[in-house]
Amino acid sequence: MQHCKICTHPNVKEINERLVKGDSNRILATEYGVTESCLHRHKLKHIPQSLTKAFQEIVEKDSFDIMSKIDFLIKETEDIYTVSRNGGRDLLALKSLDSLRNHYQLLINISAQLHANRVLELELLKARNGETDDEEKKEFEHNIKILSTEELKVLIRIQNKVNNQTDETIISDGIVMPE
């Protein structure tokens, strides 16, 4: 009878925690010197699904709580701005606007990180399924044919903005700004 290599591994507790968190089997296999299939079997046979599901629910609840708190802060700051602006207290109104800008920047950063994580998950999934970048490129080229020349120019400007991290305003109030 074969023994589970993960259950007898010196770092079993850490491996279990990372498996429950959803860390990649490929990364864990490399870090701990075991095979991906060993990790997969261990997760299926020795880590209860209920534990993994409970952890995911906690993560989702915490994420929701944080977003609720940010929403509350934004609402409060907007209220302070409105009262200050209407009351002629311009300095406080300006400080409120600055605070709002910081709240929105936080949301942008969170959104960017979530997007980056999702892109990484999709890339890992594609790699597991044997999909190649060539297939994705062909699909993109096929789908992009519906765009007009002007729309393609805007898309290129947006890509350049993202790649170069510039502050250029490309679209304001639904209007494409000139270059």
Q: Roughly how many Å is the radius of gyration? A: 24 Å
Strand order of the largest sheet: 1-2
Estimate the helix proportion, in percent: over 70%
Low-confidence regions: none
Number of strands: 2
Sheet/helix structural class = mainly alpha
Shape: flat
Terminus-to-terminus distance: 70 Å
Element string (H = helix, E = strand): HHHHHHHEE
Number of helical runs? 7
Arithmetic mean of pLDDT: 81
- Give the biggest beta sheet: 2 strands, antiparallel
Strand content: under 5%
Characterization of the model:
- The structure is a single chain.
- The chain is mainly α and 179 residues long.
- Among the domains are: 1-47; 62-131.
- The protein has helices spanning 12-21, 25-32, 36-46, 49-86, 90-129, 133-143, 149-164, and strands at 171-172, 175-176.
- Strands 1-2 form a two-stranded antiparallel ribbon.
- Strand 1 (171-172) and strand 2 form a beta hairpin.
- Helix 2 crosses helix 3 (36-46).
Question: Briefly, what is this?
Answer:
This protein is mostly helical. Helix content is about 75%, strand content about 0%.
Question: Notable features of this structure?
Answer:
179 residues; mainly alpha; two-stranded antiparallel sheet; 7 helices
Question: What order do the helices and strands come in, and which of them pair?
Answer:
Layout: H1 12-21, H2 25-32, H3 36-46, H4 49-86, H5 90-129, H6 133-143, H7 149-164, E1 171-172, E2 175-176
Antiparallel strand pairs: 1-2
